[in-house]
Amino acid sequence: MNLLRLFGKKTFPRGIHLEEHKAETNAKPTRRLPFAPEIIVPLAQHVGKPAKAIVFKGQLVTRGELIAIADGFMSVPIHAPVTGTIKEIGLAKTAQGGKQAAIIITTSLSSGQQLLDSDIQFDYLQMSREELIQAVQNTGIVGLGGAAFPTHVKMQTPADCSIHTVLVNGCECEPFLTTDHRLMLERIEHLLQGIRISMKCVDAPKAIIGIEDNKMDVLHAIEPHLPDDNSIRIKAIATKYPQGAQKMLAYSLLGIEIPSGSRSSDAGLAIFNVATLAKIGALLPKGHGLIERTITVTGDSLENPGNYLAPIGTPLRYILDHAGFKGKEAGVILGGPMMGIPVRSLDVPITKGTGGVLVLDERATRRDDISPCIKCSSCLQACPINLNPSELGLLAAKRQYDVMEEKYHLNDCFECGCCSYVCPSNIPLVQYFRIAKTLNRERHLQNG
Amino acid sequence: MAKSDLKIDIRTSPYIRKAPTVAQIMRNVVYALLPLVIYSVYHFGISALALILVTAMSCMATEHFFCKMSGKKSTILDASAAVSGLLLAMTLPPGFPLWMGAVAGFTAIAMGKTLFGGLGFNLFNPALVGRAFVQAAFPVSITTWTPALATDRFVEFIPSTLALPFMKPLPTADWSIQVAIDGFTGATPLALMKFQGIITDSYDLFMGNVAGSTGETSVLLILVCGAYLVYKQMLDWRIPAAVIIGTAISAELFYFIDPDKYPSPAFMLFSGGLMFAAVFMASDMVASPVTPLGIFVFGCLVGILTVVIRLFGGLTEAVMYAILFGNAATPIIETYTQPRIYGARKNKQDKS
Ligand code: SF4
Ligand code: SF4
């Protein structure tokens, strides 16, 4: 492997090559989506504690106004995505089929693009690290690549870890999605600003932007804007799934392995998605909050696939209508085809962590017969973590969930889906692993 | 897991897939075996053809029968039984009595596969189980070789082929001498080497112009067919490679010690169906390890055992036993060769 790193393209071992399906959307400039008549803003759009609503029914809110505050450090505030009236603070459907607390806003007909101006202007260069991290929290930003982990928490690195490099993840290795691609072409200044802010937050001397080599236009667009002191660099690595996973990225760019069971900070790295940093760069200096994000709307039976700048809380039905969805039946997925979440209702809003809305016809709903594992070892040759999905799958069938965890490193599986993708027996391996992890977690809770 | 759970299961990510199905893989193995079948029919005539048909039909019928017996959907269409049947036929002598071929086919599927729970659960390569059974049951027939390229091979059966069930097949020795182009002794290159110290020319071995099992003839053709499967990504090239490495190194070792007494590595590689076994038998996915290191260990083990059994054991068709042994060792090999995961810690203390 080390030899490969020296002579070949920079990448990680194993993984899979996917059809990209990016051409439908990656050449079109991002367009703004109009305001939907009703906006649904869930209070828990991030990992951690839900935000606390500070508005009441019938209250008028202005676009950009704070409507829910962070509940402690592991939480972020929420700002009004549109000008309108609070219709209700109640329950709204979630993509997974449950219900959760949300603020529902009836958009005012006169709602325009104007923002409630913040009275504070920040000069981040003059701020201390603590002040900066606080300011990041105030923007309400979470990992926009899909993780939805509060970014300021990630920036608060433990005192005993010193961060040597900020890795900026611009791989976008999921097929179909192109928001990061467009953003890296359209928002270079914001991105670089955000990178500088993040470097200051984690006290890192250098940053590397990692992109897959299917986006060389990005490399050429960004290179002239990079500082002369080489503190920020951009590197193209092989186009391979899951190149955008943190562990793969660390290996491909620097040859560093993040030790099993620990965070990237333990390896001296802070890893952020390009979209997250570009938003920080755009919002933080002005004291604004996160009220909209870019999403890729693409897939089958769409007349206008493309990237849309959409207010957070826009219902999927509105988005699909706008993109000209003509089909009758389809699977709708939040995120990419490898790791996205299937939605059960179109009345679900997009949230801060939604990077794409993907419409797939029979592909998503196709059900093949599952046959026994024939030990073809394809899954072992695909797993980027070098697990043994074949053995894990056999153990799952025998319900030996504890053995999976103790002997076969179940918890190192990050559910990338490579093993399921290649399995000739159609075994839903990842799904088995998800169930096993959930059951293990419950068991551990019971045992104290 | 309840049935209702499963329905939702399949609709979770990933939503795209790209893999040949098990049936596609098996069908391609059949395609890859066809040239070998044709070549052996060309070599050994209608007897070989009849034998191949009988064992293949026997395997498929057995598979179908047991599926129906246990009320399952018949798995005959996944072509794995056909693969076993073809493989089995290729390991038998061309003049093997047809009724014994049928017995071998039945045993291969019944004992080698169904007994373990069907495809995916079998510990051993079913074809080899069938072969081992008939080797024990009919020791004479399975070591009776007839010459290749006999003059009337397309119109006349080898006398033993049509033996009636439970009857002793007709002796073939006289017939062999009669039909052979040049003085045929009824011995395979391995037997010649072992018992008479005659080393067959490597070129003849390579082209398959020698006596032997139905399918262990042309090394060249075997390699080409194997390459097709590797190209289709339906054969793990690492297994044959490891078998070849194991055989070559251990043979070289003996050859180095005493070149007069022991045959050269090239002879070892090109004779006795080693290539056929390496490419098509040892590589049986189900009965070989899945871990990368395990695959290498398994292959080398099979290669080394083959050489040792050939040189010091009584059985010339050593590679078949070596693979069965390798199959048996597979679970142990796997236990000790689990891959090192990304970010693995060097020792436990690291964790704190
Ligand atoms: S889902 Fe888990 S086991 Fe499967 S390839 Fe990805 S990391 Fe490996
Ligand atoms: S890919 Fe599927 S059939 Fe092949 S070894 Fe893995 S689990 Fe078994």
Automatic annotation (TrEMBL), chain A:
[4Fe-4S] cluster 2 binds at residues 383, 413, 416, 419. GO terms for cellular component: plasma membrane. Part of a membrane-bound complex that couples electron transfer with translocation of ions across the membrane. Its cofactor is [4Fe-4S] cluster. Its EC number is 7.-.-.-. This is Ion-translocating oxidoreductase complex subunit C. Belongs to the 4Fe4S bacterial-type ferredoxin family. RnfC subfamily. [4Fe-4S] cluster 1 binds at residues 373, 376, 379, 423. Its main location: membrane. Keywords: 4Fe-4S, Cell inner membrane, Cell membrane, Electron transport, Iron, Iron-sulfur, Membrane, Metal-binding, Repeat, Translocase, Transport. PANTHER family: ION-TRANSLOCATING OXIDOREDUCTASE COMPLEX SUBUNIT C. NCBIfam families: PRK05035.1 (NF003454), rnfC (TIGR01945). The gene is rnfC. The complex is composed of six subunits: RnfA, RnfB, RnfC, RnfD, RnfE and RnfG.
UniProtKB/TrEMBL annotation, chain B:
One of its GO terms (biological process) is electron transport chain. The keyword Hydrolase does not apply. It holds the Pfam family NQR2_RnfD_RnfE. It is a multi-pass membrane protein. The keyword Phosphoprotein applies. One of its GO terms (cellular component) is plasma membrane. The modification FMN phosphoryl threonine is found at residue 188. Its EC number is 7.-.-.-. Keywords: Cell inner membrane, Cell membrane, Electron transport, Flavoprotein, FMN, Membrane, Phosphoprotein, Translocase, Transmembrane, Transmembrane helix, Transport. It is found in: Cell inner membrane. The chain crosses the membrane at residues 29-54, 98-124, 136-155, 205-231, 237-257, 266-287, 293-313. It comes from the Bacteria. Its cofactor is FMN. Part of a membrane-bound complex that couples electron transfer with translocation of ions across the membrane. The complex is composed of six subunits: RnfA, RnfB, RnfC, RnfD, RnfE and RnfG. NCBIfam families: rnfD. PANTHER family: ELECTRON TRANSPORT COMPLEX PROTEIN RNFD, ION-TRANSLOCATING OXIDOREDUCTASE COMPLEX SUBUNIT D. Belongs to the NqrB/RnfD family. This is Ion-translocating oxidoreductase complex subunit D. The gene is rnfD.
